[in-house]
Amino acid sequence: MAAFITENFKFLALFFKSKDVMIFNGLVALGTVGSQELFSVVAFHCPCAPERNYMYGLAAIGVPALVLFLIGIMLNGHTWNMVAECRKRAMKNCSTPATFLLFGSIAGRAAVAPVTWSVISLLRGEAYVCARSEFVNPNTLMGLVTDIGPETMARIPCKDAPSSILAYKDEVIRRLQYESQFIGWILIAVVASAIFLLKCLHHCCSPLSYLQEQYWGQYRSSEKELFNRTAEVHAKVLAASNVKQFFGFVALNKEEQEMVHEYPVEEVQPSPQWNEITGLYLYRENKGFPLYSRLHKWAKKVIGNGTDADAKEMALLAV
């Protein structure tokens, strides 16, 4: 029974590791939905005034989406790799298609949260009703006095709506919610179609076979995990050595003592080595053998772009 549980746990771990991008995007979307619900309950209050309704409604949909997009850009590791590449190599090693795909990857990953926010806002309809209420034409409402102006129509979303339009309040809100939800569903269809087409384009244009591309993704994930874990240990051991040299001793717990004893650090990596493994990377082949990362290329001591006459090139994307 224990062996069965262990095997199933390993299977689930491998599955989630292979779908890490999909799961991350799903968690971002769920977090955005929760934030949107909280915002609607706590912070959204339509001003119920001409012109202000429109600006407030658009701001409620657009401003949080823009903030979430910028946060997504900042949290994407490719962004800072691209900055490092521009500063050190001025993007000389990146072809135009690869650069375009990289920008698309960064923007696409960052767009998950803002698109989710916009879609949920439109499906709920509150912000759209607030923004559009003053533009409703009274002539379209049977029996309503036609000389009612935007000042009165702008109060439709409010609890204290004037008695002259109270009988038509539900109908106006229903119309506006229909428009809002229609736009939301159209946006969902457009985004889903765009994702499907981009996935097809990605796999059609990829110089790698489907299995090799899967292996490349697993290698990148493993290299990143091992590099970060090793860097953490290396930094701690080096710090312990320097602290001991300054004070004459270093206060370590049992686990840290074992770590310092097991992984002695004699020297640090020079800056040129860090520069060689930092920045964007395009898939390369050297004499028919793949180079999966800058670290892999450095370990093989390949100088320059490391490409032969039949070299393949592909942007480092996690699509």
Automatic annotation (TrEMBL):
Q: Name one GO cellular component term.
A: plasma membrane
Listed name of the protein: Calcium homeostasis modulator protein 2
Cross-referenced InterPro entries, in alphabetical order?
A: CALHM
Q: Name one GO molecular function term.
A: monoatomic cation channel activity
Entry's transmembrane regions: 21-42, 54-77, 98-120, 182-201
The beginning of the lineage is:
Eukaryota, Metazoa, Chordata, Craniata, Vertebrata
The superkingdom of the source organism is Eukaryota
Q: Name one Pfam family in it.
A: Ca_hom_mod
Tell me what topology the record assigns in the membrane.
Multi-pass membrane protein
